[in-house]
Each structure stands twice: as structure tokens, then as C-alpha cells.
Amino acid sequence: MTKETVMVETTDFRNGMSLLTGAVNVITTAGETGRFGFTASAVCSVTDTPPTLLVCMNRSSSSHCHFKDNGILSVNVLGAHHQQISQAFASRIPMDERFTHGEWTTLLTGSPVLSDALVSFDCRIRQMNDVGTHTIFYCEVEAIKMNENKESCHGLIYFNRCYHHIGQQEYKL
């Protein structure tokens, strides 16, 4: 019995992936050439020993080389109230203008951290692999800043090409 190679159409793959719910994140870096950032849902945990995340970035992005050269990044997990920030970092507006949305600080690496993100992971890029159109960054977490404000702990997700808010509200009887 022989196996036939079936080619999956790019549009079918993209349409299918639009139904894979993902947390919305702004990924940032900083270095001699300035601050850079983009919106991504392609982020996940790799291992907790050492704490490591992976982040996927399109190599055609104008800021791709800055992430590679800087060797650091922060993953800022966005809350429901951050939809405007997500849209700014997904747009083609100038990089400096993107950082006028939200309040930014730094942790250990110097990569920009969104002050009121649900959680921010400050990372050093330890390994990179190119697959197709993207680079996979394997990032060791050096510091974590968690938002302690329970009122703003509703997450922002992307599903079926739209933003949605998630999180439970507590009801007292």
C-alpha cells in the first residue's frame, strides 16, 4: 500500500488555524537601533526547567533582524482592555507611535514590558530555527511580572479572525 502526498492549500490551512483560539500577546525588544514590537498569538510554553517559551515571527517583518540582533524579547500577555494596543502593534504605523499606546517599563533584559499586561515574560533568546516563512525563537525566561489587579484579569483572545474577551466573573449569592 503506497501513501499519496496530499498538498494542503495555504488558504485551507489559514482558515483552519483561524479556528484555533490563541491568547493575544505583544512581543517587544530593544537595543541600539530602538524599540520594536509586534502582535502575536504564536506563543507557547516549551518547558519549566529552565522556564522557556517559544515565539514565532515572520521573517519578512521589518523588525525581524532587530529581534535576532538584540537577542532579547518580552512576551506581554494582553488583557481584554488592551485591544487597541494589539491593533496598534499589528498595524503598519511607525514603531515609535506604537509605543505611545500603553505605559512601558523594563525588567532585567531591558526589553519593553507593558505595565498593566496580565503577565509579562522577560526573556533571552537562546536558540532560533527557521521553518518556512517564520523564525522560531526559543526564549529562556529571566523575569516575570504578573498583574495583581483582579479586576483587569480578563484575557484577550483571537478566534475566527475576531477579538474576544474571556474570564470568569465572580458572583456572590
Q: How would you describe this protein?
A:
The chain is of the alpha+beta class and 173 residues long. The protein is built from four helices and twelve strands. It has helices at 10-17, 64-70, 83-90, 95-98, and strands at residues 22-23, 25-31, 34-40, 43-48, 51-58, 72-77, 104-106, 112-114, 119-131, 134-146, 155-159, 162-166. The longest helix is centred in the N-terminal third of the chain and has 8 residues, at 10-17. 27% of the residues are buried. The model has no long low-confidence stretch (mean pLDDT 92).
Strand content of the residues, in percent? Answer: over 45%
* Rg, Å, rounded: 17 Å
Give the low-pLDDT segments: none
Total of helices: 4
User: How far apart, in Å, are the first and last alpha carbons?
Assistant: 63 Å
Task: Provide the spatial order of strands within the biggest beta sheet.
Answer: 3-2-6-9-10-5-4
What series of H and E elements makes up the topology? HEEEEEHEHHEEEEEE
Shape: globular
Mean pLDDT: 92
**Mind summarizing the main beta sheet?**
7 strands, antiparallel
Q: Summed up, what is this model?
A:
With 173 residues, this protein is an alpha+beta fold.
Provide tags for this entry.
seven-stranded antiparallel sheet; single chain; three-stranded antiparallel sheet; alpha+beta; 173 residues; 12 strands
